[in-house]
Amino acid sequence: MDTTNSEQLFTKAQKLIPGGVNSPVRAFKAVGRHPFFVDRAQGPWIIDEDGNRYVDYVCSWGPGILGHAHPKVIEAVQQVCAKGLTFGAPTAGEVELAELIGACVPDVEMVRLVSSGTEAVMSAVRVARGFTGRDKIIKFAGNYHGHSDGLLVKAGSGLMTQSVPDSAGVPAGYAASTLTAVYNDEESVRSLMEENSGQVAAIVVEPVAANMGVVPPKEGFLEFLRRITKEQGSLLIFDEVITGFRLSLGSASEYTGVHADLYTFGKIVGGGMPLAAYGGRQDIMSCVAPLGAVYQAGTLSGNPVAVMAGITTLKILMEDTGIYERIDRRAAKLEAAFRQTGLCVNRVGSLLSAFFLPGWDGKEGKEIGERKVENYEDACQCDREAFADYFNRMLERGIYVAPSQFEAMFVSDAHSDELIDRTCSAIKESVEECRVV
Ligand code: KE4
Fold first, then answer.
1. Residue among 84, 124, 66, 89 nearest 296 (CA)
2. Which residues, in sequence order, are bridge partners of residue 136?
3. Which of 98, 101, 14, 37 is closest to 302 using CA atoms?
4. Distance CA 20, CA 325 (A)
5. Residue 358: predicted pLDDT
6. 432 DSSP β-pair partners
7. 263 is catalytic
8. What pLDDT does residue 115 have?
9. What pLDDT score was predicted for residue 361?
10. Rounded Cα–Cα distance for residues 247 and 226 (Å)
11. Is 144 a catalytic residue?
12. Positive or negative, the Cα torsion across 79, 251, 64, 203?
């Protein structure tokens, strides 16, 4: 595979941009190769600067549910650009997008548009603290909520203590107000809530985890979180930056039947443009300035071009909800292919991850069987070298999956059955080759 142009760009980029990329995972460090630089994308295809074509299952980490460069989205964006790119003043489009979000997710009675998922979650946490007058929050190991200081934390020594920073530059004091529990472990949540009774503003959770690989909530787990937050006077925040409009049009509350107090959205809601959102109960959102005392602002919040991409995307999804059955069915085919290789697989709708758990290769004679990944500790056991080997073999076959064991595979409406079948073959061949080496 010729990678000359990408290599030259990467060499230059590394002199100008930390790691040569504007977001760490793009550097492909976890898979031991240099990244390709994208020239363009169309439907299920990404084409790099050397003309190599890949079937894309990263979908820009989630926004691409319709496939790349959907003609209706591109046309709508081109038209609205001609009217000006940004005004720093309210526009009709922001009202329309707010209406569409509420129509899809009725729990979102009031919403604020922002520019990234990080900003959405950071703001939702601040609103929860402002509304409850409490400082502490509980998050889960392996859940990622963007890079705001208070959420770049990991469990301290033992669950009963405060979290510790998970990044240089995060003051211990910022981490101190964040407690870290174990996903799918009710007892870890209960003990933190009891130890910090009356102090927890909110539990923030990915209703389907997709940042430790895909890890579904165990039966009753989300219902438990809903109960215990109500009992304790805390809020429940569903971080739906990935799951929002991905699992179904009504997002996780429709998909799971559990209703949170606040929701964050990103990726799909912006149609691939820099737009995210947080919202929920009107009494809570009424705390947000200029209505209330919780400050949050943004020069490009509700940007008219990004808003148009979001409106057009949501309207396409609303007009053809059959997309969800199509992408789920295709993802189920990929899941079956992984299972035939003996790998542990988690799939929720059109999100899936295969895990290279110890013994994945059968060499240790371990019964491959139905081992599970139910939390971050399970996911951390994976053989990352084997994953990297699998990633590179898939890429050589023209299939681009996320360059990390801890990311999800995304299926879009542009992935035809023929491409899915081709991908299933590539999965079986690549995993088998990894095993044989
Ligand atoms: P952004 O600030 O990257 O728009 O969103 C942060 C965020 C918040 N919540 C969840 C559940 C998320 O998954 C994310 C971001 N997702 C990662 C991929 N797992 C973004 C990719 C990247 O960091 O480059």
1. 124
2. 200
3. 98
4. 38
5. 87
6. none
7. no
8. 98
9. 77
10. 19
11. yes
12. positive
Collapse the DSSP code of 51 into the 3-class scheme (helix H, G, I; strand E, B; otherwise coil) and give the result: coil
Rounded to the nearest 10 degrees, how much is the dihedral formed by the CA atoms of 356, 204, 401, 311? 160
Name the token pair of 271: 């149609």
Q: Is the peptide bond before 304 cis (omega within 30 degrees of 0)?
A: no
Q: What pLDDT score does 160 carry? A: 55
pTM over 0.70: yes
Residue whose entry in the numeric block shows the structure tokens 């604020």:
112
Distance from C-alpha of 26 to C-alpha of 393, rounded to nearest angstrom? 18
Task: Tell me the backbone φ, ψ of residue 299, rounded to 5 degrees.
Answer: -55, -45
Six-digit token string for 101: 């979000």
Q: Are 179 and 196 in contact (CB under 8 A)?
A: yes
- Residue position matching structure tokens 């009992």: 231
Helix (H, G, I), strand (E, B) or coil at 251: helix
Backbone angles phi, psi at 200, to 5 degrees: -90, 115
Residue nearest to atom 7 of ligand 1 (CA): 146
In sequence order, which residues have a C-beta less than 8 Å from that of residue 404 and are 6 or more positions away?
Answer: 25, 30, 31, 387
Cβ contacts of residue 234 below 8 Å, gap of 6+?
A: 128, 132, 134, 193, 200, 201, 202, 203, 228
Name the closest-CA residue to atom 21, ligand 1: 61
Active site residue 267: yes
User: Structure tokens of 276?
Assistant: 């995210």
Residues in the chain: 437
| Exposure class string for 69-82: b at 16+ Cβ within 10 A, else e | ebeebeebbeebee
Give SS3 for 108: coil
Residue from 136, 185, 255, 267 carrying the catalytic annotation: 267
Please tell me if the CB atom of residue 104 comes closer than 6 angstroms to any atom of ligand 1: no
Which residue ranges in the chain fall short of pLDDT 50? none
pLDDT given for residue 194 in this prediction:
95
Q: Count of CB atoms within 10 A of residue 102's CB?
A: 15
Tell me, in angstroms, the distance from the centre of ligand 1 to residue 210's CA.
10
The residue type at 329: R
Q: How many Å lie between the centroid of ligand 1 and the Cα of residue 297?
A: 20
> What is the secondary structure of 400-429 as a DSSP string?
E--SSTTS-EE--TT--HHHHHHHHHHHHH
Is residue 379 lining ligand 1, measured as CB closer than 6 Å? no
Amino acid 368: pLDDT = 58
Give the pLDDT confidence score for residue 164 in this predicted structure. Answer: 85
- Give 123-192 as a DSSP string: HHHHHHHHHH---EEEEETT----S-GGGSEE--SSTTS--EESSTT--HHHHHTEEEE-TT-HHHHHHH
Position 18, amino acid: P
